[in-house]
Write a structure and sequence with these properties.
Blueprint (H helix, E strand, L loop, with lengths): L5 H9 L9 H11 L4 H14 L3 H6 L2 H7 L6 H16 L13 H9 L6 H12 L8 H10 L8 H11 L5 H14 L18 H6 L1
Helix pairs in contact: 1-11, 2-3, 2-6, 2-8, 5-6, 7-8, 9-11
Length: about 210
């Protein structure tokens, strides 16, 4: 199997997800909440936030300790509350509408988000891809692990470097689908221990699978 065949092989198993954009401010807050936790706890924390505060302005006016208390179930609550607070301070300057980012050049929108304390490479790329459809390839722990097992990334590469390299290997039109499907593969089959290589739809492209056989 050639590298370029990987997106279609994953889509044959997991489908081709349709991008359903959220407002970018909501996406950023959800992605901040998702750090080092699962989707269920992220969603619970976001619901708790929206229930506790009637508006973005009310949330911005709240103390970091109050925000931290509300999102505590999601973990890393002190760190995340500071990032959310910094983001809302910036968003307030734009009427809590960050849709202008989607009209910027991708590199400028990315640099703008990285200027916000608490927003890193993955969070910026996730929201610019998901909310704006910009050609970024975010990499999380699952994608990093799968890419290294495939032989598409070196073991000591950071996620940011893995992201840059994967971006060069695949068609930008496939970034959204491939991002989500690689995460599904990492959760279902290509787990940290005891990967189920024999069931993997892209095992013919995988160095790790060949070495185990």
């Amino acid at each position: 199997m050639e590298i370029k065949e990987i997106p279609k092989a994953l889509e044959a198993r997991y489908g081709r997800p349709e991008r359903k954009p959220r407002p970018i401010l909501e996406c950023l807050i959800r992605t901040i909440l998702s750090q080092n936790t699962n989707d269920r706890l992220r969603d619970q924390a976001y619901e708790r936030l929206t229930e506790a505060f009637g508006s973005w302005e009310d949330m911005r006016r709240a103390s970091p300790s109050k925000i931290s208390e509300v999102i505590k179930p999601a973990g890393l609550h002190d760190q995340k509350s500071k990032a959310i607070k910094a983001l809302l301070e910036l968003a307030a300057e734009h009427g809590y509408d960050l849709s202008f980012l989607c009209k910027m050049k991708p590199r400028d929108a990315y640099a703008f988000l990285l200027s916000v304390k608490g927003i890193g490479d993955k969070t910026a790329k996730v929201c610019l891809l998901f909310s704006c459809g910009m050609p970024f390839f975010p990499v999380d722990t699952h994608i990093s692990r799968v890419a290294k097992r495939l032989g598409l990334a070196v073991a000591n590469w950071t996620r940011e470097r893995v992201s840059q390299h994967l971006s060069s290997l695949f068609d930008p039109a496939d970034y959204y689908s491939l991002h989500l499907n690689l995460i599904e593969l990492g959760r279902e089959l290509c787990k940290p221990s005891s990967p189920r290589c024999d069931e993997c739809p892209i095992n013919r492209a995988c160095r790790h699978a060949r070495e185990r056989s």
